[in-house]
Design a protein that fits this description.
Layout: H1 3-120
């Protein structure tokens, strides 16, 4: 064996030692990447499950809210109907009883004034007494 062959063998042994020395961290890095991949997969599954649960709960709340809004719409419709009916009844009352009630009130007021005037003795003078006039 010559010196060149020995140097070549030493270089080859050094290269194998260097590859072995560098292979250990690369293998550990590969295991770390595999573990990280598993963690990401588990997180994704958990996130998808929680998101699905949240979406289901939100859909239930929206369905309940829609039912409540339908009830409110029915109540509003009924209130509008009642308001319309009350307005119609008020107009009917004013048309049928308003005029006669005003006339009756005016008549009773006139009778009351006449009785009061008669009691005060102003009815026997033969003159009509006007309200607000002096004399």
């Amino acid at each position: 064996m010559s010196v060149g062959e020995i140097a070549g063998l030493m270089a080859a042994a050094a290269l194998v030692a260097l590859v072995g020395f560098l292979a250990v961290p690369i293998l550990k890095l590969g295991r770390t990447v595999d573990e990280f991949t598993l963690v990401v997969r588990d997180l994704r599954k958990e996130h998808v499950a929680k998101t699905a649960t949240t979406v289901d709960e939100t859909n239930e709340l929206l369905a309940s809210t829609n039912a409540q809004l339908r009830r409110i719409d029915a109540i509003t419709s009924n209130a509008q109907t009642v308001t319309t009916n009350v307005a119609a009844m008020s107009s009917l009352f004013a048309a049928t009883l308003g005029g006669p009630l005003v006339r009756t009130a005016a008549f009773t007021y006139g009778v009351r004034r006449a009785i009061t005037a008669r009691r005060d003795g102003a009815a026997g003078t033969g003159r009509r007494r006007r309200f607000g006039s002096r004399g």
